[in-house]
Design goal:
Length: about 250
């Protein structure tokens, strides 16, 4: 019998990414603030951002890493996500994020903190199935654990400054900075020995359902923003020397 809320969040959208230096980030953010506002989850102690931590899974041969590097159009990966550095205060999710040609697809469900060890070692999956097995994302996670032998490999932390629009609920802009990573098998390691990723730079993510508003498209032209394919998972894998881009 399941002991958690079975509600699963799902969405499909476009995500465009840009890498900004500090000066350009400040200029663009000032323009964004004329049209958008912070979402309700920012914290003053994080300078109107919030903390994000993800523990990514991959196979022994880094299957997910090389799928991303090779630009495979249909792919997926799993991660445990929380928004706190300490276990006692945390809310935990298991998430599946992937790409279906040009769209990013994502689903996630809340998990009990006491069950986190079952996700670290899903090869012992009977208890996991008994607790969560009627949830699609859990079934797919177990299937990947068995078929691809995925396990936790890299921990990625960053600060996210998020903006939402009163005029378009499907348009969202985030500024992700202070990205760091380390090899890890758990979500809450005792040490804080992380490697910096893109030090001094911010990843601007533009998320939308159908089209970018005209005012933001103008910003892209004015500041000559160049869309890039960048992944915090890949950055973390490289920074932690877990996998290498051979291309």
């Amino acid at each position: 019998m399941a002991i958690v809320d079975k509600k699963v969040e799902e969405f499909s959208r476009f995500e465009f990414k840009y890498i900004l230096n500090e000066e350009l980030r400040n200029k663009i953010e000032k323009q964004v603030q004329h049209f958008m506002k912070y979402d309700g989850y920012v914290h003053p102690e994080y300078d109107n951002s919030y903390f994000v931590r993800s523990l990514y899974f991959d196979s022994p041969r880094s299957f997910n890493f090389y799928e991303k590097i090779d630009g495979i159009k249909k792919r997926k990966k799993f991660r445990l996500r929380t928004y706190d550095k300490k276990y006692n205060n945390s809310t935990l999710f298991i998430e599946q994020k992937g790409r279906n040609v040009n769209r990013v697809v994502k689903s996630r469900t809340l998990i009990k903190k006491n069950d986190i060890g079952q996700f670290y070692d899903a090869m012992n999956f009977e208890q996991l199935i008994n607790t969560y097995g009627d949830i699609k994302i859990i079934k797919e996670f177990v299937a990947d654990s068995v078929k691809r032998k995925i396990s936790p490999v890299v921990l990625v932390d960053y600060l996210r400054c998020p903006y939402i629009s009163d005029y378009d609920m499907n348009f969202r802009v985030t500024f992700d900075s202070k990205i760091k990573a380390k090899a890890s098998k758990i979500l809450f390691p005792d040490d804080d020995n992380f490697f910096d990723c893109l030090s001094g730079y911010t990843i601007l993510e533009v998320k939308f359902f159908r089209k970018i508003p005209a005012w933001f498209h103008k910003l892209i032209l004015v500041y000559n923003l160049e869309r890039v394919s960048v992944s915090k998972f890949v950055l973390g894998m490289k920074a932690s020397s877990i996998a290498t881009d051979l291309s």
